[in-house]
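LAB NOTEBOOK - FOLDING QUEUE
OPERATOR: T.R.
BATCH SIZE: 2
PURPOSE: Compare the predicted C-alpha cell outputs for two unrelated chains run back to back under identical settings.
PRIORITY: normal
REVIEWER: second-year student, initials M.K.

ITEM 1
FIELD SEQUENCE / FIELD STRUCTURE:
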Amino acid sequence: MGHPILRKKSKEVNDINGFLLQTLINDLIATVMEVDGVGISAPQVYESVRLFILASHPNARYPYAPKIKPIAIINPKIVKTSDKIVKDWEGCLSIP
C-alpha cells in the first residue's frame, strides 16, 4: 500500500505492439481474474507505465457490476472532472 511507485506519475506507453507490453497485459489479466477483481493497474505490480485492465463482472463485492470482458486501457487520460464529492468504500487489490 505505501509503495512510492503508486504516487509517481507513470510513463506513457509508446510501443503498443511490443512483446513486453503484451506480456504485462497478459499477466495483469491473469492476476485480476485469479483474485476475482474488477481491475488492476501496472503500478500495482511495480511497473510504472500508463496501463490498466478493466475486467468488470458481478461478484460478491460488486453484485451489480456490469459484465465486461477483460480489456487493456493504454495511456488513459482524465478528460473531465466534477466538484461533486461522493463518499464510498474503495475496492482495491493493493489494500487489504
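ITEM 2
FIELD SEQUENCE / FIELD STRUCTURE:
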Amino acid sequence: MDTNEEKWKKAIEKDGLMWENVSDLKGNDNDAAMIYGVRDIADNFLIDENGIIIARFIRGEKLEKKLKDLFHSNTNR
C-alpha cells in the first residue's frame, strides 16, 4: 500500500523485518491488495512454498507456534 520506495525501505529496516517484503508502490491501487481483499494495514498472510495461503491475520504467539510447527514438519520429511 506504499507509494514511496525510500520510505518503504527505511520502514522495513527500522522495523527489522527479516522476511521477504514486496510492494508495487501503487498505494491503494495495489494489485495484490485488490486480489486478496486487503483493506486495512496491518494485514498479513503466511504463504507456503507453493504459493498457497496457509494463514491470515496471524500474529504473536500463534504465528510463532505455526512457524515452529511448519519448521518441524518440514525437517521430518
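REVIEWER COMMENT (ITEM 2): Strands lie at 45-47, 53-56.
FOLLOW-UP: none requested
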